[in-house]
Amino acid sequence: MLIYLEHCTFLFSIIVHKDKADKLRNRFRSFYTLIVSVIGRKVVTLPKKKLSLKNMNRKMIKTIVLAALMAVPFFAKAQNFAGITAEQNAQNTPEGWTAVNLPQLPTITSANTFNIKDYGASTTAEDNTKAIQKALDAVPSTGGMVVIPAGTWMFGSTDQMTSKTEVLSIKSKTVLHLCAGATLKLVEYGKAPNNKTLFIGCKNKNQSDIVIEGEGETSIIDGQGTRWWKARDNKETFNPGAMIRFEKGSRFLIRNLKVQNSPGVNITLSNSNGANNGTVHDVTIYNPSSETKTEQPSHNTDGISIWGHHMNIYNCNISTGDDNVVCDNDAQYIHVWNCKFGTGHGASIGSYTKNIKHVWFDNIDMNGTTAGIRMKTGINSDGTLRGNGEEDWKFTNFTMTNVKNPFSIDCFYDKNYNSDPAVDKANARALDSTTPTYNGILLQNVKTTDVCDGNAIFLIGRPESHIKNVTLDNVQISAKKGIDIRFVDNLVFKNNSKITVSSGSIWLKKFDSTWDDQCGATSTGSGVVDTKGPFTLNSKTLTDKTAGSFSNGFAISNEKGKSYDVGSGTTYIKFSANQYTIIIPDGVKIRKMDIEGRNNYDTADAYIGEINGTSYDASTYAFPKDKSVKKYTVEFDSPVEHTLTFTPKVKQCILQFTLYTETSTGIQHITTIAQPANNNVYDLSGRMVKSNAKADDLKSLNKGIYVFNNKKYVTK
């Protein structure tokens, strides 16, 4: 067939173009290489013997010429790059924003198209890195396209790398095209570099006008991440880089392919605001959930991570083990629309949030995500925060199904939430250039289709810099737990918004915050009828053993997600060796607490080792292994509001709590313990790191910020 087509090309060139046969024969070789790469035919060796018209009869010539004419459309198709017309038509630029700039590329012809097979790549090779890189290097400065034909092409061995930091390096004005049925597969863990190397990137970071494209979901980039994620579980030392990452430059386009099983982040657009004007569309990303029980969980596998300005993400389907799409430092004018999010941590901001502005997620369908709309600001190892300059974020037209936490803002991402916000306020930091300044957040037309497992709303600002101006417009959220807001100014409910909880109070906490419920969004649900008490927390008042909600408006939470089962033959609730937080309804002040119960094991004595931040030894609040019932009373020096913590030790206790707002009840106390002088050292999470410390003990602490004798102490 090939010889026949070459005859056609040769004769057609003589008849039509009047060109020399040798010149056309060489041109045909390039044409044919491109054709077979597109239609998947096997390349065979072209004959070197010159052809002669004298050896052919006229009938054969007519047939050949006709065949050549029929072949012209194939040549044209093979040589034409689809261009960026579709992207130009789909820009969908929000009002007041400038449009995202698209790649500027030359016309793609046979002369600037390079098939990796022509450079030695083979589907039987253990590693094609060098061959693929030769094809990429062959692209002239004026631009061109590298074709990866159908088949599986291994790449990525450390000893095959042609760059110290990138496995495959793409230069400006290059189209990397994966044909239908083509899989570019990273070599297995142990052969690929594990030192934050970029698997597909740019050796010269400042490259522009790059396209990575496929022909649908059968065009695949596969990172073989299972062994990498297992290694993380095994605490092996490694640091995988992104599968695709553009660090500097401008005008990037990724389209029409699938990225799966990446060892780390799938796609990263920019680094420290070094790159801008990126477009990702019609891309499927898949990594197992970080919480899956049927596969190896993936870790730190962000779907698309954005660190620059002017980015469009649309028509993507992303399921992963971390953030589905996340905006970090310097992300500005980011528009994400018409996407489906499966497993993952949702539409995310942070934890690096400095200078993030003008972000709009629109028309997002979520199913099975751990978090829906999630914002978080962390802390650096030197004690500085990761914020400043955050404003103008929109989340519109969301549908959430099987989403655990629909809406959360977390400016204390470096800590847990068992500490009393009053303590946080007393230890507020001084404002500086790293302080987060969240301002102007809109949720519009957002609804959950079922009951979420977590809090309906969880907004935790910082005492020195409140979250400001959060509007819920036509937002309907149903959840097991209610609303927890701390350090929030002007939370507005409007236009048919409605918050419902399966049990307990809608408002779990309102600390140093202001809100405006314009539509009765939070007007229903159970609450505390009698703020005087006493309040009993046992199986009779427990209304949801998964959420830890009680009929009197109280709740008990823990970081491990433990359920609250009942001890056999009792009204007591089981508590294992974890710290628990009693959530106290707004307006209630607890002055005293009874603890009644017994050990649930007979192999070792149990005890309460911590109450409200004060530590106790095994002899104070003891529950012996003989399982005898004990009752203790704790009186507090000052009323306790909002939260009250306790920590069982050794194994498991079954307990009930009775909480009082008055110190005198007529109940005979078995034990009354006054709180000792608090010389303990706590971290900023409220966790005790050293008990009964002396001044000299502070010198041995790790680098960080601590609280000692109600004062801050910084260890450098």
Structure write-up:
The strands form six sheets. This protein has a 28-stranded parallel sheet that branches. Strands 31, 35, 37, 41, 43 and 44 form a six-stranded mixed sheet that branches. The radius of gyration is 32 Å and the shape is elongated. Strand 32 and strand 33 (549-550) form a beta hairpin. Among the domains are: 2-79, no CATH class; 346-356 and 366-525, no CATH class; 535-669, Sandwich (Jelly Rolls); 677-716, no CATH class. The protein has seven helices and 48 strands. It is mainly β. The protein starts with a helix and ends with a strand.
What's the short version?
By secondary structure, the protein is mainly beta.
Topology diagram in text:
Layout (H helix, E strand, L loop, with lengths): L1 H16 L3 H19 L18 H22 L5 H5 L23 E3 L13 H10 L5 E5 L2 E5 L10 E4 L4 E5 L3 E5 L11 E4 L8 E4 L6 E3 L3 H8 L10 E3 L2 E12 L6 E3 L5 E12 L17 E3 L2 E6 L2 E3 L5 E3 L4 E10 L5 E3 L7 E11 L3 E6 L14 E11 L3 E6 L10 H6 L12 E10 L3 E9 L6 E20 L1 E7 L3 E4 L5 E5 L3 E3 L17 E3 L4 E3 L4 E2 L4 E4 L14 E4 L3 E4 L6 E10 L6 E6 L2 E2 L6 E2 L6 E11 L2 E7 L2 E9 L11 E2 L7 E3 L4 E3 L13 E5 L2 E5 L1
Parallel strand pairs: 1-2, 2-5, 3-6, 4-7, 5-8, 6-9, 8-11, 9-11, 10-12, 11-13, 12-14, 13-15, 13-16, 14-17, 15-18, 16-18, 17-19, 18-20, 19-21, 20-22, 21-23, 22-24, 23-25, 24-26, 25-26, 26-27, 26-28, 26-29, 27-30, 41-44
Antiparallel strand pairs: 31-43, 32-33, 34-36, 35-43, 36-42, 37-41, 37-43, 38-39, 38-40, 38-42, 45-46, 45-47, 47-48
Largest sheet: 28 strands, parallel
Sheet-strand content, in percent, reads 35-45%
Separation of the first and last Cα atoms: 76 Å
Q: What percentage of residues falls in helices of 4 or more residues?
A: 10-25%
Structural class: mainly beta
Total strands: the figure is: 48
Cα-atom Rg, whole angstroms? 32 Å
- What would the principal axes of the Cα set say about the shape? elongated
Outline the low-pLDDT stretches: 1-56, 63-79, 664-677
Helices, by number, come to: 7
